[in-house]
Design a protein that fits this description.
Strand order of the largest sheet: 1-3-2
Order of helices and strands: HHEHHEEEEHEHHEEHEHEH
Shape: globular
Strand content: 15-25%
Largest sheet: 3 strands, antiparallel
Helix content: 40-55%
Oligomer: single chain
Structural class: alpha+beta
């Protein structure tokens, strides 16, 4: 965490920001139009975004050295993420071309509740004269200055049941609790959280599937497989668990969803 969280409001804002950041990364991992190189650059930036500033600043040179690729490849990957609507980038002209990258959070569609205007009728039985103003389009003849005519409106009161029905507003539908795809075997997940931390597990282990018969962690992408092999292979081996890269098997295995507050 980039700063000391001193209040519940700060903790809530930080948790919401973290959740939005991980949903952003999950969307990138599921985008088949992105190249593996762009996914790797996004994974590198994921842990560099700053809560206070709202963005990450890394030079193209340092990203190229960290991923062991050339600077041109970094530029192509960043351009692809910008084109896909995942990043907003401001590039400086200094040495190494420092990038100020801000992630664009996925937009969740919300249902709009239409409000019906309430028509009111006078309580008394006296007819009400309503002024009706005639309007013309810009292409039609201009207003001749003739005074508006008066129109008598009906004042018969509506039945009580009809008025009650008209005032009734639709009840808002409860939004489903945000969820996160979690690794199926909680024992293995807990062990890797203790070894590598929760952010690492959400980024890589939670994207993998669990094959219980062969005790295998099955990865879909080579990036996640490489990161798990580098940081968690030893702990998995101690537990008798194999790490494999098999996109076909990954697609057949179930991946449960757990509420976001339980995954935090």
């Amino acid at each position: 965490m980039s700063r000391l969280v001193e209040s519940n409001e700060d903790m809530s804002a930080y948790s919401a920001w973290q959740a939005s950041k991980f949903r952003w990364h999950e969307t990138i991992l599921e985008d088949t139009n992105l190249s593996n190189l762009s996914v790797r650059v996004a994974g590198l930036l994921l842990h560099k975004f700053n809560f206070e500033k709202g963005h990450a600043w890394r030079s193209q040179l340092s990203m190229a050295e960290g991923l062991k690729i050339d600077v041109r490849s970094v530029r192509r990957a960043i351009a692809e993420l910008v084109k896909g609507g995942y990043l907003s980038v401001k590039v400086s002209r200094g040495r190494g071309h420092s990038n100020e990258c801000s992630f664009i959070a996925p937009v969740e569609a919300s249902e709009a509740v239409s409000s019906v205007p309430e028509k009111r009728t006078p309580v008394s039985g006296v007819p009400v004269l309503t002024v009706v103003q005639k309007r013309t389009l810009a292409s039609e003849k201009a207003d001749t200055g003739v005074p508006p005519y008066l129109e008598e409106t009906s004042t018969s009161p509506l039945p009580l049941t009809s008025r009650r029905r008209r005032r009734r507003q639709p009840e808002p539908q409860p939004k489903p609790a945000p969820s996160w795809p979690a690794f199926r075997d909680l024992k293995v997940r807990t062990a890797i959280v203790q070894e590598c931390g929760e952010p690492f597990v959400r980024s890589y282990l939670d994207q993998a599937a669990w094959e219980p018969n062969g005790k295998q962690v099955v990865c879909r992408l080579s990036t996640g497989h490489a990161r798990l092999r580098d940081k968690a292979a030893k702990r998995l081996s101690e537990m008798g668990v194999r790490l494999v890269l098999d996109p076909t098997l990954h697609a057949r295995l179930p991946r449960p969803l757990i509420p976001m507050d339980e995954a935090a």
